[in-house]
Amino acid sequence: MKKFYTKLIAVLIIISLLGTVIAGCGSKTQSEARKKVLKVSMGLGEAEWKVMKEDIFPPFEQKYGVKIEPLQIEAGDLIKKLDAMHKANAMDIDIITQDNMQLAPLVAKGLVEDLSQYRDMIPKEVIPSLVPVGEFDGKLYFMPYRPNVEIAFYNEDKFNEYGLKLPTNWDELLQVAKTFKEKEGIGRVIIKENLGPDSTVQMFDLIRSAGGDPTVLNDEGSIKAFTFLKELQPYLSPDSKKADWNTPVEYLAKDSVYLVENWPYTANVLVEQYGKKNILAYHGWAGPVKESHVLGGEVIGIPTGAPNKEMAIKFMEYLMSKEVQEKLVTKLGWPSMRSDAYGKVAEWQKPYFEAINEALKHAEPRPNLVYWADVDKAINGALREIIFEGKDIKTTLDKYHNMIEEAKKAAESK
Amino acid sequence: MMRKIDISEKISNTAYIPIAIIAAILMVIPVYILFMTSFAVPSDILKPHPDFFITRFTLDHWKNVFTSGNIWPPFKKSFVVATMTTIIAIIIAAPAAYVIARMPSKIKYAVVLSLFFTRMFPDVGIALPIAVQFIKLNLMDTYLGLVMAHLIVNLPFAAWILVGTFETIPKDLEEAALVDGTSKLTALMRIIMPIALPGIAVTAIFVWLNSWNEFTYALYLTISDRTLPLQTYYYVQRGGIFDSATYAAVLTIPVMLVTFFLQKYMKSGYLAGAVKG
Amino acid sequence: MSYVNFVKKYKLEIAMILPLLLYILGFTVYPIIQTITLSFQDQYTKAFTLANYKEIIGKTEFKQAFFNTIALTFISLTLEMTAGLVIALILKRNFRGKGLLRSLMLVPMGVPTLVSGVAMTYIFGLNGYFNAFLQKLRIIELPVDWASGGFKTLLMVSIADMWKVTPLVILLLLAGLESIPDEVYEASNIDGATVWQTFKYVTLPLLKPSITMALILRAIDAFRIFELVLVLAGRATPVISTFAYDEYNNYANAYTSAAASTILLLIIAVFIVSYLKIAGTKEER
């Protein structure tokens, strides 16, 4: 009996060892097969993936005889996964599209290839402001792909009910917020204050439209912006501190918030999924000096050690081509990175598309700083202390300005 | 002698029923909300004061979810991983627990406490190093990789419950068998294990539920082959309220089935030993 | 007994315990040590330094996170243990529908925390069912912002956590309750003790080991609370886990994140050790 069990255990151990070996082996034959596959990672909703799989991928697959394997990975998770694969020396993704506000960690950790030698691939019809965002330290790490910008979504019924016009400047914004609060007892306008990347974007808009520089943080424009926000605060929706890129969609859908700036995909969810017809969008409001919206969007990158790099480069070129860019406009309502790509947008998407294009006219990219994390921390720290803790504006901004300065010095001395 | 019926007895005799009912309702409410939302007509929910008791129903969301076919691979993956994790966890933890249960008391206490040391670290701290190790072993997107990750989380817990179970089995039983001339191994398999079976069943249920439910390691260790919780979260982020509610409801169904059918094994005597240790 | 003999005699036992030990050592202890080492490394030079700790301890957010974590844990533990005890006592009785109640009690255990978090936002959100309920009963007029920070936010998160976790407490306490022999109750009955007295002087002391185990088990998880806080309260109410997560995720600083995680480990260890010392270790029968 004992012999039987001993044999059994031995067999089990051998099987599990074999299993691990098999899992890891076969790499030789695998690498040829691997070249026939292009693993592409993007962060998209289901409807968007449908367009990719049906309209964008097949022509490329046919032309080059490869199979494209789509991977759904959100921007934040992408950094983690690339990091893990890179550390394990087992990069398995060939090409990525990434939110242009989450690029610095990828470069800092050495997770993407230097694409400077392919700079000529960028079409000359590209909108110039889209290129610098992919450059770090003079090297090109990312190719432009699609610009994006937040637009101001509003509840048409509620604006009509109280006879309000869409705010075009700060005074009007304050008025609108006040009116909603007075009539309904609770704030209905959101300014994102979630102390994360989303509130950074919001503060960028406010500071820049007052003529300030968010990386300086204690200049005149910044002080004006924070003063205004403090004045606006009592009339804002309490959900402002939970507003990220995702929650506003629900707030709008449930008619609990009537005005909030968010990314255009919001319209897709509201209209296609929820059938809400009363939420429209416009380009937003200006500050005392100008109108400014952070230029978001996505860029294309190639992970370090990508198994199928040559094919990835070809795909990169393909995505930037006129033919693909026009499809992105028509099928997805995405504004193009090329000035020569025209397309007819679906009927229901027209108003949102117009809003996007109007907002893009006032779009400014964020600077690509190595010490970006510290800027982010400073802005949110100032937001927390001034708005939530009621501290004095000037002294707090001075403090955080110094924080940024120190980080800048530390980065430059390296 | 007649025992007086005192106030506290009266209170506890009458109060327990309403308390039990309220508790049961509270336990069920969140799940009810998920199910209800998944069957609701959108405009009944998408308003400032959503209905709690919906009067109109629709099967649209469920139809969408099942016809899109996106739900089966994650369902299968979660199911297989949970089951495999449970089986392997028992195979590893049960014998070890038996040994620990027979250790001298002070050592045993130390071992058990140190098992918990591993649970005292926040996941965010170790998920990455573990993920890196696993990726090096080529375990990304594999069932095996996820099982191994789930084992990390569940082995200490399983071992702890099983130590308690084995402790309630008196040593005399084995000793009697040994006296009769059977080998240690046979005594273990033929005599002890059957008695420990209910405790093992309880452990199995816990492990299965934990694994079915698990999110963090799945996030790190999968690229294209998502588990059901990950898929549900995708819809929570990108999809609408109704898709995610439906997925969440589907996620809960096996749980309710498993707990309902196996709850008779939850005779808590098997946990009693764990507690005494 | 010499080493060799020891191994020979116990080779079966060693074989049985080895997989568990190796697994835990390799896959948990080792990564934890890796992370702790990380916390003592300088971000750029990799030299040994306490800078990471100094940096985070100086931050207001961390101090808030520290306070919130400890406050949350205490509130959660109190609520869970009380509710768990009450329900366990109820389940000890025999009544129709006991089986049904028992299976209903287990349902929360199988729902992923993230999903339960989402369901909780439907309940505790500004326009959620709870506010609607309170408004219907005219207890409040305007919806309450449960997430605005302070005690009510901690309370909200505790209740949400409680939902998921009380079943485990119930099972553990029930196990302890059922292992108390009936004779003990009969004896106290004969002595004429009231239900309350029986509870206080007989049940509770005998239940102490169960309570201790449940408390320790729950404390370990309560200190580490993470997803629920993110989903329900956002970053305005940080806890140590979310702080560590943000440091790593948003600020790409694995070192300070590791430092925060290590501090959490210390807090938990200190709590457990002090609790055991105060409450006494083994049962006294």
Structure notes:
The complex is a heterotrimer of chains A (414), B (277) and C (285). Chain A is an alpha/beta fold. Helices cover 49% and strands 12% of the residues of chain A. Chain A has 2 domains: 36-147 and 296-346, Periplasmic binding protein-like II (D-Maltodextrin-Binding Protein, domain 2); 151-294 and 369-412, D-Maltodextrin-Binding Protein, domain 2 (3-Layer(aba) Sandwich), CATH 3.40.190. Chain A has helices spanning 2-24, 27-34, 46-64, 75-87, 104-108, 156-161, 170-184, 197-209, 220-232, 247-253, 265-273, 309-319, 322-332, 350-360, 372-388, 393-412; strands at 37-42, 67-72, 95-99, 135-136, 139-140, 143-148, 151-155, 259-262, 279-282, 293-294, 296-301, 363-364. In chain A, the strands form 4 sheets. Chain A has a 5-stranded mixed β-sheet with strand order 2-1-3-11-6. A 3-stranded antiparallel β-sheet of chain A has the order 8-7-9. In chain A, strands 4-5 form a two-stranded antiparallel ribbon. The radius of gyration of chain A is 25 Å and the shape is globular. Chain A starts with a helix and ends with a helix. Chain B has helices at 7-38, 42-45, 60-67, 72-101, 105-117, 123-136, 143-167, 171-179, 184-213, 216-221, 228-238, 241-262, 269-276. Chain C has a single domain (62-279), classed as MetI-like fold (Orthogonal Bundle). Chain C contains 13 helices and no strands. Chains B and C meet through helix 1, helix 4, helix 5, helix 6 and helix 7 of B and helix 2, helix 4, helix 5, helix 6 and helix 8 of C. Chain B: One of its GO terms (cellular component) is plasma membrane. Chain B: One of its GO terms (biological process) is transmembrane transport.
Layout of secondary structure:
The complex is a heterotrimer of chains A (414), B (277) and C (285).
Chain A: H1 2-24, H2 27-34, E1 37-42, H3 46-64, E2 67-72, H4 75-87, E3 95-99, H5 104-108, E4 135-136, E5 139-140, E6 143-148, E7 151-155, H6 156-161, H7 170-184, H8 197-209, H9 220-232, H10 247-253, E8 259-262, H11 265-273, E9 279-282, E10 293-294, E11 296-301, H12 309-319, H13 322-332, H14 350-360, E12 363-364, H15 372-388, H16 393-412
Parallel strand pairs in A: 1-2, 1-3, 10-12
Antiparallel strand pairs in A: 3-11, 4-5, 6-11, 7-8, 7-9
Chain B: H1 7-38, H2 42-45, H3 60-67, H4 72-101, H5 105-117, H6 123-136, H7 143-167, H8 171-179, H9 184-213, H10 216-221, H11 228-238, H12 241-262, H13 269-276
Chain C: H1 3-9, H2 11-39, H3 51-58, H4 60-92, H5 98-106, H6 113-124, H7 129-136, H8 151-178, H9 182-190, H10 195-223, H11 227-233, H12 240-249, H13 254-279
